[in-house]
Structure formats: structure tokens, C-alpha cells
Amino acid sequence: MPSSGAPLYNRDVSGLFATPINATTRYCAVYGHPIKHSASPAMQNAGLAALGLNWRYLAFPVHPDQLQACIVGAAAMQFIGLNLTVPHKLLAVELVDALDESARTWGAVNTIRFETQTADGTWTRLADIKEPVTGPIRSHGFNTDADAIVRALRDDLSLEPRGAVVLLLGAGGAGRTAALKLASENVRELFLVNRTRAKAEALALEIRQRHPNVKVAVGYPNASVDLVLNATSLGLRSTDELPFDGLAFQPSRAQAAYDMIYRPAETAFLAAARAAGCRTANGLGMLLYQGAAALELWTGRIPPIDVMRDALQKNVYGP
Is 130 one of the annotated active-site residues of the chain? Predict the structure, then answer.
């Protein structure tokens, strides 16, 4: 045991030593409901330690009704930034003070950077301000999910979206972003399935207006697909039902399956797809790439991807 008053150092899963928490430690966080499954703290704290920053990344359970108050509270406490996960990404679009082009394009916010206005009127990230902030602070919303999902599909499944036929399960925050991004990548056909059909129909209409060259339909395809992608939260719990109707679609009709869920590492959806002969991947790659982009937005520095990947893999799969 350390002697009284000795600093306590925490070794994260990457093997790096983090600076001990003190009165100058700065904070980032992820908000979600639920949040206990999140591997973001392991990934981001490893990245922060590798960059030598006296920061900590926390996770908070935030009910949707409290999201606005919690964003305002983080700004008041001069947090560096936030990540948002289910079910906050669509809600936050109307709650942040400013929207980056990425958030406007994809219609969802998964990353918030807090900024202050300097004497010359320039909005500057809080990370760049060394003294206590006395000026106004705003929340600036970004979307780092869209690029991350395409990169993960290419890296983890060797799947090129252009010309592909895709069945997308879920039209919420993550599903909407994925659908719009895949359409922008010129998939050939996109089939949308959602528990609330009206939401899928509204998304299909938006895609037709923004990307008229892409064929989009609501419902299950009658033929095979290149990819079936789960963007729902079904699979987080072992008692969850499958995210697709087994009478309307069988995984054997897909070449590849991707689940945005990463914990458990293999959901019932991915297990069924693997058993049917599909190439499969979970959402770990997407989490890595969106998280690395968020860290770069907060710090202005190149994120240590390999360190963050190693921390994620150890956190989700074990040593």
C-alpha cells in the first residue's frame, strides 16, 4: 500500500500510466441510456494517456429527458467535450448551440466539442485555453459516425459500399446516419426495415430526394444482398429478440453481416449470420474510428489509433 499522501497512479488496459487526477485534471464523457456496456472510457483514457494529457474520460447514464440539462452542466463545468450514444444522437441536433457540416449532413450528433469565444470573437476549443475560462461557452455538435461506419465495413469486411445491395435494420440515430452515408457512397439498392414503418418511410423519402440515383425501398428484399447491417439496439441483452423477421429474411441470403453492437462481441444476430456462412464483424471498428475522430476534434492532435484499438480489444475480448 502507498504511504499516506503518495500519488495513486492507475494503469489502463493499454499498459500506459495515466497522470494522477489533481485539481487541474480536465474531463470528457459519454452520455447514454443505457451506458454500462460502453467501452469508450477504456479506449479514450488509453488514448489520452498516450498523448500525455492530464484528462479523464467518464461515462454517465443520462435519461433523454435530462440530456439538455446534462449538456449545459458539462459546459458549465468546462468539460472538454462529450460523446453521445443511444438514444441521444437525434435529440442533440436541436440541443447544441452550433452544428458542424457533418452533423447537418447526417442529421445526428455523436460528438460535442465545448468552445469559448476569445477577445477577437473567435470560437476556440476549450482544450486550447490554459487559464480558467471567463468568456461564453458553446456546445458545437459533430458527427464522426458516418465516416467510421464506411471505414469499418472496408477494413473489417472488405466490403466496398459502391454498387452494393444493403439491408439496413433500424432507422434511428445510428441507422439514419448509416443509411444516408451509404447512399452518398452510391450503394446500388438500400432496403430499410424499422419497428416503426413511418420512420423508415420518411428516411426513404429523404434518401430519394438527396440521392435520386440510389434505389431505396421500405421492407425486406426478395433476393440476396451483399450486406445486412444491424443499427438497432437489439442484441445488447441476451434476452433480446433478433433484429429481423425470420419469416421475411434469412441470413443465408446475405454475403456479409455487420452489427453496430460490440458488447457482447457476438450477438445472436452475428451468430446466426456466421452459422449461415456470412462474413461477420461487430461494431468495434466503428467505435474505434468514431472515437479517434472525436479525440482529434477535442485535442487538435493525431489520435494514437493503435493504442486505442489495443485498449478496446482487451476491454471487449479480454487479455
Answer: no
Q: Please give the distance of CA 43 from its chain centroid, rounded to a whole number.
A: 12
* 111-117/225-230 β-pairing: unpaired
Strand segments, DSSP code E, in the chain are 26-32, 55-61, 81-84, 98-99, 111-117, 123-125, 137-142, 165-169, 189-193, 215-218, 225-230, 254-259, 279-281
Are 57 and 27 within 8 A, CB to CB?
yes
∠ CA 116-83-25 to the nearest 5 degrees? 60
**Hey, which residues does 115 pair with through a beta bridge?**
125, 138
Q: What tens digit of pLDDT does each residue of 279-309 get?
A: 999 999 999 999 999 999 999 999 999 999 9
Of 147, 152, 148, nearest to 258 by C-alpha is 152
- Report strand pairing: 123-125 vs 111-117: antiparallel
What CA–CA distance (Å, rounded) separates 230 from 169?
Answer: 5
Q: Which helix (H) or strand (E) holds 134?
A: none
Query: Which pLDDT tens digit goes with each residue over 223-248?
Result: 999 999 999 999 988 899 999 999 99
Classify residue 222 as exposed, middle or buried by CB count within 10 Å of its CB (0-12, 13-18, 19+): exposed
Average pLDDT in the chain:
92
Catalytic residue (choose from 89, 181, 199, 314):
89
What values do phi and psi take at 283, rounded to 5?
-85, 15
Q: Is the peptide bond before 264 cis (omega within 30 degrees of 0)?
A: yes
**Which structural domains are found in the chain, ordered by start?**
26-143+286-317 (3.40.50.10860), 147-282 (3.40.50.720)
Place of cell 426513404: 204
